[in-house]
UniProtKB/TrEMBL annotation:
Xref: InterPro entries: Dimeric_a/b-barrel, EthD_dom
Protein family per UniProt: Belongs to the tpcK family.
Species name: Penicilliopsis zonata CBS 506.65
GO molecular function term, any single one: oxidoreductase activity
Protein name per Swiss-Prot or TrEMBL: EthD domain-containing protein
SUPFAM superfamilies for this protein: Dimeric alpha+beta barrel
EthD domain boundaries: 12-98
């Protein structure tokens, strides 16, 4: 069973959205994906970059309060054991300790486990 980790990310105070996007897309992703433990257990890494005005307009158009997130990441691991191996690896821990203060102001994480129960799927 695969494990997915959703990461909601906001840039650090004083950092432009462009600088955040550039670092997250190139510096952070490149370093993360270069880690041997990540290469071993990561099946997929996706980033959703948003222009704040577009995201806020979409949220407001749905009657939602602006979330304040600058992007969302999704990391899929081969198993819970694989995710645990990544999160306990010293190379990963060193990378995260050095990397997070460079560009992240706040972050929330949610783990998705098990198979989803599809409640509805439109026929095409």
């Amino acid at each position: 069973m695969t494990v997915q980790l959703l990461i909601f990310a906001a840039r650090k105070e004083g950092m432009s959205l462009e600088a955040f996007d550039e670092h997250w897309r190139n510096g952070h992703a490149t370093g993360f994906l270069a880690l041997p433990i990540v290469k071993k257990h990561c099946l997929k890494y996706e980033q959703y970059h948003h222009k704040n005005t577009e995201r806020e307009q979409a949220e407001v158009s749905l009657g939602l309060d602006p979330s304040g997130w600058d992007g969302v990441g999704l990391v899929e691991f081969d198993s819970m054991e694989g995710a645990q191996a990544v999160f306990s690896d010293q190379g990963f821990l060193d990378f995260v300790t050095a990397e997070v203060p460079i560009f992240l102001g706040k972050m929330e994480r949610v783990i998705l486990m098990n198979e989803p129960r599809v409640m509805y799927k439109r026929d095409e």
